[in-house]
Design a protein that fits this description.
The structure holds two protein chains of two kinds. By secondary structure, chain A is mainly α. Helix content of chain A is about 80%, strand content about 0%. Chain A contains 23 helices and no strands. The longest helix of chain A is centred in the first third of the chain and has 48 residues. Chain A is globular. Chain B is about 60% helix and about 0% strand. Chain B is mainly α. The longest helix of chain B has 25 residues. The chains are: A mainly alpha, B mainly alpha. Chains A and B meet through helix 5, helix 6, helix 10 and helix 13 of A and helix 1 of B.
Chain lengths: ~550, ~40
């Protein structure tokens, strides 16, 4: 259970963001104020806001867990990001900025036609509308189990909290709050890294710890394996990653809207280049914290499994005394082997000590896997990667710091939720309500509708998160399909700015064929999901262009 | 009917050097990660 001081830190955080949101969000007069902060934001606020939007709570908790369980190879997924940022800076960003649009999809009507704009905006609403529920639900379940709080309380704190100040303050409030949230997240990450390093035994230096993690392969960050079915390699990271990041940062309204708030095109570009430079180092630090956590638990006995509820459920129905005795013995022998390996580093007996340590690590893993297999008999999807980091925080960090890390997790969840709420309501109001229902009305009317749209999407996401246990598989299915949309939408933007002959009919059908191609790829090939956006974009461009030519020649002949 | 784009075609312009620095920095980061992995092993 959380200490009252930790709850106080959480309460102070909520008070601070409400205060910042209220102060910075006053005086919204029209849609440009409310959704684009009157195009007045500086690059550093946008850069941190873009980073905060991408860093959801599950990213923060899951990435450290990845570092612990699988090592740092996950970092390769970001290898394409800096290159994608550079490409966006001289392609889509100037087009969006100069077109003075509210949404990325609005640009498609200026270039093609209304149906292409409506289709892309609808696909965005479909995909993001349900993913918002997952963004709230996923960390809530973990935090509820680890901190012993009802998950509904955490869902309501995240969902209602983010909805309220987003509806009151609009985009300017959201972005300034996100900037502070990102700084809190960074503070939390560095506190964690420091806590893990200072928690190591006195005999183990930082370089010893890195070598211990390295012996198990956890510090491998670059894999040259050419197999496209392997997800984390330098090739999937660069080639698949570029298209993934181009799709996300170039066509997803939750990201595009951030850099549309810039006070100049230069500031838009700088905000993206800020991410190009700092994203990989940031992920490196988070993953390193996870890998060093693995070393920390060489000398401090970890629980058999990190999900306490799954273990207690198992322990209630099984005689665990034999397994726990085996686990204790295997841990003690691995601790001794790890210490011997650290002492041997640079000496002649290093190879032997390394072999003994690796054998002891395998032995401990075998005992743990015995327990995992038992849990999987009743819960086939069991995976406790996401529980590693919160368990460490709760059991090893001092009072107050636990509250700070919890606040960082809350900040990560809320920054993603509020970005999605603003983008969902912008697309709803600008691409549908103002386009089809009320084409001209007073600013005041649109402001009221915009706030209602935020409350609708916030309420919808919170409701779905509260009932996720029952709706889970349906929401996951829609979410998975939602991830198929981004590549084809990127393809349509390539047609829009890269060709003069593409037209609305070609773009519209290109998207649909692209989505179909991605679904077929996902179903019938084992290729890494990082390539899905590449497939979708290529098919949408090729067929969209070809269909445009067919339509334009038939129109000429008529 | 399609409409013409309302902006001029994109050019790298004065930003070319900035982009080159960012790309060079990215390649340098890849190299550092490779060296880190080699050292830790």
């Amino acid at each position: 259970m959380l200490h009252p001081i930790d709850w106080l830190v959480v309460a102070l955080y909520f008070g601070l963001i409400v205060f910042i949101g209220y102060r910075t969000g006053r005086g919204n007069k029209g849609l440009e104020d409310f959704f684009l902060a009157k195009r007045s934001m500086p690059w550093y606020a946008i850069g941190l806001s873009v980073m905060a939007t991408q860093a959801s709570a599950i990213t923060l908790v899951g990435t450290t867990g990845q570092g612990y369980v699988n090592g740092m190879r996950f970092i390769q997924i970001y290898f394409g990001l800096p290159l994608a940022m550079v490409i966006l800076c001289f392609t889509l960003v100037p087009f969006f900025y100069r077109a003075k649009v509210f949404t990325a999809y609005e640009y498609l009507e200026k270039r093609f036609d209304g149906k292409t704009r409506s289709l892309t905006s609808f696909l965005f609403l479909l995909g993001r509308g349900l993913s918002d529920a997952v963004v709230i639900y996923a960390p809530s379940v973990i935090l509820a189990i680890v901190f012993g709080v009802d998950e509904k309380i955490i869902i309501i704190m995240i969902g209602v909290g983010a909805t309220l100040y987003t509806a009151i303050g609009g985009m300017r409030a959201v972005m300034w709050v996100e900037m502070w949230q990102m700084l809190i997240i960074l503070l939390g990450i560095f506190f964690c890294l420091g806590s893990v390093i200072f928690g190591l035994p006195d005999e183990i230096s930082l370089t010893d710890a890195i070598r211990i993690a390295g012996a198990t392969g956890r510090t491998d960050t670059v894999d040259f394996n050419p197999d496209p079915n392997v997800t984390y390699t330098i090739w999937t990271g660069i080639f698949g990653g570029i298209f993934l990041m181009l799709s996300y940062f170039g066509t997803d309204q939750s990201q595009v809207q951030r850099y549309l708030t810039a006070r100049s095109l230069t500031e838009s570009r700088l905000s993206l280049l800020f991410n190009a430079v700092f994203k990989i180092p940031l992920q490196f630090v988070i993953l390193l914290a996870g890998a060093l956590l693995f070393v920390f638990y060489q000398f401090d006995k970890p629980p058999v499994v990190f999900n306490p509820v799954a273990y207690e459920r198992l322990a209630g129905g099984q005689d665990m005394s034999r397994i726990e005795a085996d686990y204790d013995a295997a841990f003690e022998s691995r601790r001794a082997a790890a210490m011997s390996f650290a002492e041997s580093l640079g000496g002649g007996d290093e190879p032997d000590a390394r072999s003994e340590f690796l054998a002891a690590d395998v032995e401990l893993s075998n005992v743990r896997n015995e327990v995992v297999d038992l849990i999987k008999q009743t819960d086939p999807d069991f995976n406790d990667t996401n529980y590693v980091f919160p368990t460490f925080v709760l059991t090893k960090l001092p009072v107050g710091i636990v509250g700070l890390i919890l606040v960082a997790i809350f900040a990560a969840a809320m920054s993603t939720v509020e970005s999605e709420l603003t983008s969902l309501s912008t697309a709803t109001v600008v691409d549908f309500y103002r386009r089809y229902v009320r084409k001209s009305a007073e600013d005041r009317h649109y402001l009221v509708v915009s706030r209602l749209a935020i409350m609708f999407w916030g309420g919808f996401a919170t409701f779905c998160a509260l009932y996720m246990g029952r709706l889970g598989s349906a929401i996951e299915a829609v979410n998975r399909i939602g991830s198929y949309f981004y590549g084809p939408i990127l393809g349509v933007f390539v047609l829009a700015i890269g060709t003069r002959r593409a037209n609305g009919h070609g773009a519209f059908l290109g998207i649909l064929l692209g989505i179909g191609a991605v679904q077929l790829t996902a179903r019938y090939s084992g290729v890494s999901y990082l390539y899905y956006n590449l497939v979708g974009a290529v098919v949408a461009v090729a067929f969209g262009y070809a269909i445009s030519r067919v339509f334009s020649s038939s129109e000429r002949s008529v | 009917m399609s409409k013409e784009p309302d902006s001029p075609p994109p050019v790298l312009g004065t930003w070319r050097r900035v982009y080159l620095v960012v790309v060079a920095n990215t390649l340098f980061v890849y190299l550092l990660l490779l060296l880190f992995s080699a050292y830790a092993r």
